[in-house]
Amino acid sequence: MTSISTTKWDFRNCELLPSGEIAVREYLWDVDAGVVWTKMLDMKTIVNPRTDTVLHYCLVVNTSTLMVVVYDEDWIQISSISLGAAPSDIYRAGFCVSVLGDEVIVSSPYFSTLWGFNTGGTLETAQKVDSINAANTTAIDLPVGVSVSWAGRIVWADGEAVWFSDPVAPRTVVAQNGIIFPGGKVYSLHVNAGGALILCSEGGVFALSEQAAATGQIVVGIFQKLSDHRTVGYDQTCICNGRVYGLTERGFSAIDAENQKEYHLSEASIRRTTTPRFAFADYRQGKMFATPTGPAVNIGRFVHFTNIAAGFSTWWTTSDPLSNLIDIRAVGYEKDGEMFFMNVSSPVWRHGDLSLTEGAISAEVAGSVKTPSGESVVVRRAFFQSDSQEAFGMSFMGEDKTSSAPTAPSPVIGTDSWDTGLKYTDAHMQSKRFLWSTRSDDLQMELKVFGPGSRVPTSVDIDMMGPGKRRP
Prior knowledge:
mainly beta, Methylamine Dehydrogenase, Chain H, Jelly Rolls, four-stranded antiparallel beta sheet, 0% helix, elongated, disordered C terminus
């Protein structure tokens, strides 16, 4: 009997439990929250620091009109503003919501900059406000483009032009506070853990120290080049736990320093019985956004999550390949910090009740077992463990088999009835045996576990007979 670790195999529909164990992800609840749009592009959540009021700013397309709609935590619409006809091919919109004091700046390359208060007031097209500084008083019209709140100012990037507002005056931009950026067109702006302004451009990734904003009205400083990573579109970078990540052709990597690990997102060439493997020619076609544990990548109606600290990653799928349920464009947060998802059509919460959700899903672990070149071994038996209360599944060389259902130690929450005096107990691990008589040079396997929260196997035991007939 040979025990094979599956920790480096490809995972689907998995998540990490608080214990660090890998489990089947929870079902997703696609909530009808009274939304008024036909397509969601992006969303940002902000929190008022004094009142803890949560507001969700949504960039949407309603029929053919581009709009920004603001909702409170209960998804009651607070305000909305129409921005004209939506571009037909809009996907990565460079949508930014920047907070400075009680004021909010909402910007994108696709519409004029908006202004409002973070207490939930209406949004309006931002109007310039002249500076109180006697030397440079006359303000220009507010720039259009991506923006960020940095060092008590709002910073915009419009192509190669970078603009800085006056200190604590988000609607005041004077001509002297604009520069032509040496790194070319800027696609995203971030603030790192040290307070530096990070500019991701077609010419590389650059930083401007926070001290450059402390020289008075005019920002004075020197841009430091952090890496040669080229950003080629909006929403291709994000910041997670103080590090800046960017999409690459094969996946993503940290881009705020040179020679960083590249995370490859394509699955291995494994023969599958469900949807084909995930493999895209260039992941820069997708969209990147941040989660508390690492970057997420939306591409082709699917989403990939990575937990940087745990070294774990997984694709999420649904049983319906045409479903929009996991076409997730952003994450948001409740007042208590609970994370939810925003897909292309509505908010989505994680939920354990099957009756409210997408239907049955399975976590899948797929990989191959290396065997000596030229030997064609025969696999007789395979075993793996899970605490799932549903049947296990296994596919070997394209042949699919299902085990009998394990013995349930207690009622399954959300499906079974509770008898008087019956207590809930944690499910224990049980193993299932799969019988084969298959000869192969390439032992490709796919393990399936059903039921949200069920632990996913980290190893599989196989009984190989052989060596078999040697190939010429």
